[in-house]
Please model this.
Amino acid sequence: MSFLNPTLALIALGCVAAPVVIHLLFRRRTRPLEWGAMRFVLEAFRRQRKRMRLEQLLILAARTLAVLVLALAVGRPMFSGQAVLQSRTPRDLVLIVDNSLTSQARAGEGTELETNKREALRLLDSLDAGRGDRAAVVTLGGPAEKVAAPLTTELAGVRRAVEAIEATDSAADVAGGLSAARDLVGRDGSRQSSLAFLSGLRRGSLDAAKPVEAAESTLRPDLLLPEPAAEGLDNAAVVSVEPLRSVLLREAGAPETQQARVTVTRHGPGVSAAATINLRVAAVTIGESEAPAWATTPVRFAAGQETASVLAPIGFAKSDKAATGPLWIEARVDEDAIGSDNVFRKPWKSRETVRVVVAAPATDSLSGSPMSYSAADWITLALSPRTGGVTGALESENEPITIGRADPTRLSAADLLGVDCVFVTRPDMLPGDGWSTLAEFARKGGLVVVTAPTASGIVQEWAEGLGKSIGLGLTAARETASAAPARAIRAGVTESRDLGALLSGLSAEMEELAKPVVVARWVASEVRGEAARLLTLEDGTALLVAARPENASRGLVVVLMTAPELESTSLPAMPLMVPLFQEIVRQGVGLASGSSTSVAGASVSEASELRRVTPTGGAAMGEAARGASLWRRVDGRGVTRELVAINADGTGSATDVQGREQVGAFLKAAAQAGSVTFLKPTADGSTGAREALPSPSRTPPIDLPLLVAGLVLLVLDAFLSRWFSHATVGGRVGVVESVSGGAGGTGGAGSVGQRGAAA
Model:
């Protein structure tokens, strides 16, 4: 046996001695006084002594037992098995609070996150730490996080953790949250384990239509769920912004019109009808106080259409046109159910010029016939058509692309300092460590363009060095292939949206530009993995291949499997030559530098080098940023190297409602729960989660049956005290019972006293 209130029980049990002490103190011993009728009194006392002692003991026992029972009622004893009868098995409760992007949805006067936190606090109020109940808290904003762990009886601390939960801009990490919650719940069979999944259960938080993957487990906790949201909310989100030019070249003269492809999604009951959403796009320069010059574009949706993409002009303020600092593109739609996904930021690389090095032997062939031009000569002319190319140092006034030469037989890292792109037209002439130099340059975000030397007599061994050092999914034949008549080319097909953007500026004109181009000599190749075939011969043979270095998120390698020389292909003399190589450089430099955009909740590499730009505040980022923000990556001197944008995760923008049974089945399977209980809404609009657990107020602090028993004993004591009273009065005063009379008991002694006094 144990006590619910052990301290009160000890104090009350100490009071049991009070009736005994009082009884002993009030037992007065009188001195005998002999007088005439003494013998009658003594005779009556001898005859009544046993009964008087029994009466006194009965009264003392009643009083002592009454105090004892009242002491037990205050202490509230707990006997073995009583907890089961009262449904008060110690409980382990893990609160899974949805603070993902979807929880920002405004439903009524507040957000769904506020409702989720309010219900979590109600559940905590239903626990009793004195009975061994424990709680912990997990948040769902990706990646899921244990904000109060492990399970603890310190419910006040758990309550503070719930109150401190803030909304994130990341999607809900349901799998991670359930896994973390299951790791926390106790595995003691004597405890009841429950998971409370507190969410609006909209499609953005969890998609019940997707398959569930859950590890088998013998642990089957109970699952408490609120009723799914009853009404959908209209919500639009900007999910991507891609400028048509990955690098903004600030050329001399008036700034040219810039465009970006912007993708917008919408959710909610309004999807069933046609609608138009206003989109605003502007270029913003870091540190510029001037307000952005927004360019507005309507985004039109047909009935039932959820996603739409438009080409939108980018607005430039006057200061942005002249600024040379880091800038970003910002796209916005009007405010709706969720605010964070209405904004999308895309860092935009801005350069005065792109610096290119052509690794090829120095020649003066530009002074001769075009038939004698080398591949390096044609590339130089294509990249700098206004000046006719340069053949010396990296110098070219007012040119967006500056070009220099390097000796391929002595190519080193020093030749590539400050360079954005390197062309290798004679890969067969590279030294043994040349490919390692190029591999390091590419992995740091450089663009490497290789053209196959297709002159007769060259053995194509360079492809092996390229594959081993950079790790491309490309193998090439050792001999040059040829055909007569020459073969036509056509645009390739690639599933890579990233690499496919390399020639996106030519997509509308590629078919016409490619028609007159033929290839007479090429190097046959096999493309594997994620490498993209951007141009092919008419039989499907890869001609222009693009790929990233193996296991690298930055860098880009482009391989042209023919030499841009008139002996091998008509390309140098065709209209496609200039725009093709211009696009490779202008787009490739931006693609090679890697993605500078991520979504909230995703891990960020080199996070220690990042400093916040907007929103203001905060000094550094951890492994994952859960909020939409703009950061700048700095070097050791604090100079900004590039901008990094963290945007809201658009997968959490879906505000559509889901069916009750569908959600219940999904979460029961995902949580491996033993039972699922949907909580009924209460009058105040809450989910009624508190009623799902026994409240400590249902168990009185005083044992009611023992309290009633103590009161009954006190009544019995009063009755016995009156019944055994020694002062009994007969029919008249002074008339006493006979000493030999029967039932007067102690009244006989009193009568004798009265009689003696009368005498």
